[in-house]
C-alpha cells in the first residue's frame, strides 16, 4: 500500500514546465538600439511628414522588434531544442512581422515617390548585422556599426517617400550614419575605460575629427547649413569631456541619457541644416 497519493500527469507537467519570461523574448536586450531607431524616425518625419513616413516607421519598428525573438528561435533550432520560449519567440516574430508588413503596405500605397533606393543600399549592412547575429556576435563592433548604418537609411527612405530628391535624402542618411558610428565608437571606448579595461582614446577622437571635417566641407560647399556643423562640434566636445579620467565614474544609465541628448542635438542640427 502506498502511503502517499501519486501525482497526476497534469501535475507532473506543471512541475516540469517553468514559467516563461516574456520580456526578454519580446523586447531587445540592447537598450541603445531604441535610440538608433528613434533618430532616423524623428529626422525623417521632421523633414518630410507624411502618411508614408509613418508607415515606414511602423515597418521599421516591426523589423526592429522581430530581431530578438528571431535570434532566440534560431538559436534553439541550431541546438536541436524546442523550449516553451521557442514557441513564444515564434509567435512574437510572426506578430512583429505582421506589423512590419502592414506598415510597408501603408507606405507603398501612400508614398508620393519611390523610396526603395536607400533600402536597397542599406541591405548589405543589414545582412552584415544578421550574419553576426546568427554567429552570436551581435555585440561585436562590426555588427553594431553595420546595424547603425543600416537603420540610419530609414530617414532617407521616409524623405524620398514624401518626394524629396534622392541626393538630399542620401545626404541626410550620411550625416545620421556619421553620428551613429562616432557615438558607438565613443561609448564602447568609454565603457571599457570605466571598467579599467585596456582601450585607446585616439580612435574616438579621430572619428569625431574626421566627421567634423567632412561636415565642414559640406557646409563650405553649400550642401548643408551651419547648424549641422554646430551639432557635430557639440558631440565632439562631448567626446573629449566624456573621455577625461574624472568623467569615467559617471554611472552607465547617465551615460545612456547623455547619448540620447547628443543624438537629439545632432538630429535637430541636421534637420535645421537641411533647410538652409
Rounded mean pLDDT score: 89
Count helical runs: 11
Order of helices and strands: HHHHHHHHHHH
Radius of gyration: 22 Å
Separation, N- and C-terminal Cα atoms: 91 Å
The total tally of domains equals 1
By secondary-structure content and strand pairing, the structural class works out as mainly alpha
Enumerate the spans where pLDDT stays under 50 for 5 or more consecutive residues: 1-16
Shape: flat
- Measured as a percent range, the helix fraction is over 70%
Biggest sheet features? none
Give me the count of strands.
0
% residues in beta strands: under 5%
List the SSEs and their pairings.
Layout: H1 9-16, H2 23-26, H3 32-47, H4 51-79, H5 84-110, H6 116-134, H7 141-161, H8 166-194, H9 202-220, H10 226-242, H11 252-275
Helix pairs in contact: 3-4, 3-7, 3-11, 4-5, 4-7, 6-7, 7-8, 8-9, 8-10, 8-11, 9-10, 10-11
Characterize this entry briefly.
With 276 residues, the protein is mostly helical.
Description:
The chain has 276 residues and is an all-alpha fold. The chain has one domain (23-275). It is 77% helix and 0% strand. The chain is built from eleven helices and no strands. The chain has helices spanning 9-16, 23-26, 32-47, 51-79, 84-110, 116-134, 141-161, 166-194, 202-220, 226-242, 252-275. The longest helix is centred in the N-terminal third of the chain and has 29 residues, at 51-79. Residues 1-16 have low confidence and may be disordered.
Annotation keywords:
single chain, 276 residues, mainly alpha, flat, disordered N terminus
Amino acid at each position: 500500500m502506498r502511503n502517499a497519493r501519486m501525482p497526476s500527469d497534469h501535475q507532473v507537467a506543471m512541475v516540469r514546465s517553468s514559467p516563461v519570461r516574456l520580456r526578454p523574448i519580446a523586447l531587445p536586450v540592447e537598450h541603445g538600439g531604441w535610440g538608433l531607431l528613434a533618430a532616423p524616425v524623428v529626422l525623417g518625419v521632421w523633414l518630410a511628414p507624411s502618411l508614408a513616413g509613418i508607415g515606414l516607421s511602423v515597418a521599421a519598428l516591426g523589423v526592429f522588434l522581430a530581431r530578438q525573438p528571431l535570434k532566440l528561435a534560431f538559436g534553439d533550432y541550431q541546438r536541436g531544442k524546442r523550449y516553451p520560449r521557442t514557441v513564444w519567440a515564434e509567435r512574437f516574430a510572426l506578430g512583429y512581422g505582421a506589423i512590419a508588413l502592414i506598415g510597408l503596405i501603408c507606405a507603398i500605397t501612400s508614398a508620393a515617390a519611390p523610396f526603395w533606393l536607400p533600402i536597397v543600399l542599406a541591405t548589405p549592412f543589414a545582412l552584415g548585422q544578421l550574419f553576426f547575429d546568427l554567429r552570436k556576435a551581435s555585440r561585436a563592433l562590426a555588427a553594431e556599426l553595420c546595424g547603425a548604418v543600416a537603420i540610419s537609411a530609414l530617414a532617407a527612405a521616409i524623405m524620398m517617400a514624401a518626394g524629396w530628391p534622392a541626393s538630399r535624402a542620401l545626404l541626410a542618411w550620411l550625416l545620421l550614419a556619421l553620428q551613429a558610428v562616432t557615438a558607438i565608437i565613443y561609448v564602447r571606448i568609454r565603457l571599457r575605460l570605466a571598467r579599467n579595461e585596456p582601450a585607446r582614446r585616439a580612435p574616438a577622437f579621430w572619428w569625431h575629427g574626421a566627421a567634423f571635417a567632412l561636415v565642414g566641407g559640406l557646409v563650405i560647399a553649400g550642401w548643408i547649413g551651419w547648424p549641422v556643423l554646430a551639432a557635430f562640434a557639440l558631440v565632439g566636445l562631448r567626446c573629449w569631456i566624456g573621455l577625461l579620467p574624472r568623467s569615467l565614474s559617471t554611472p552607465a544609465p547617465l551615460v545612456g541619457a547623455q547619448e540620447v541628448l547628443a543624438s537629439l542635438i545632432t538630429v535637430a542640427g541636421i534637420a535645421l541644416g537641411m533647410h538652409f
